[in-house]
Amino acid sequence: MINELMNITSAKFKFIDACTSVRKTIQLLDKGFDFFVVTEDNSILGVLSAKELLKSHPNRIAADALKSEYEIVPSALTVWEAYEKLEQKPETYLIVVDNGNNITGIADYSIIRFAISKYIDPLTGLFKSDFLYYQGIQSLKNHEEISVLFLDINEFGLINKKYGHINGNIILSEISSLLKQNTPPFSSWCRFGGDEFAMIASMQLEESMELAQKIVESISEHRFSIGVPISVSIGIASGRRNKNQQLNNYIKIINNLINKASLESTKAKKALTCYLSSCGCLDINEIA
Fold first, then answer.
1. Strand partners, 232
2. CATH 3.10.580.10 residue ranges in the chain?
3. Which of 79, 193, 264, 288 is the most exposed place for a label (fewest CB within 10 A)?
4. Does domain 127-287 have CATH number 2.60.40.10?
């Protein structure tokens, strides 16, 4: 579910001396190497790929061609963590090492983006539900209070039957854009399935209620391109962890919170007026 970096990095790399010519290094590309770890006196100076080599004069040395930063990371680093690092600094190379500090592979932004792409819903551009677990686990490990927001589009089945699935897809796409616009940068919505969306965020119950209210209003006030008014229902489940509390089964906790939030969204849908429902802030230990 949460892939580790060691499973997607390129092992096609070669150590080269800093004084190796760019011309000779380019010739090594034809032998199947993707990356070159440039060293001097047994110290790493940086990483080269075709991107830098082809922009450099062939008579220069490898050290002169170095342009990008690098960071040494453990092989157990998740793809999500790598993605967050490289979103901030896309030119950085990740040098992946095992427990013995031996280099096992190299990853750049293009490799990470390709790995992440399978977790992105092609219609909405939002992450698939796998990302919820990464966010949730990080928050629980940091002893933060977390909230799950579960959104369901009201009467979406009827909308599909009346206006067709193509227009239904347009609505899903527009709602996804509204979710992105109205959500803090430290949180991300996921398409959970069909017309359901979910988000896990490190925020208290009151904050999550305010955010949910904002989203419900923004969607109800939005003029959808197919000219149909749309409303959504949001259920909220929050959990607070005691700092001295030991947790083992993070996945079970997240599943329980998602399930409770989805049940609350059903309650909200039946209420017909506010379209919001919460089961309050729970003790994580009670649902672990």
1. 153
2. 5-117
3. 193
4. no
CATH topology of domain 5-117: CBS-domain (3.10.580)
- Which residue shows structure tokens 């897809």? 169
Residues of the chain with CATH 3.30.70.270: 127-287
For residue range 116-171, what is the model confidence (pLDDT) as tens digits?
998 899 999 999 998 888 888 888 887 778 899 999 999 999 999 999 999 999 99
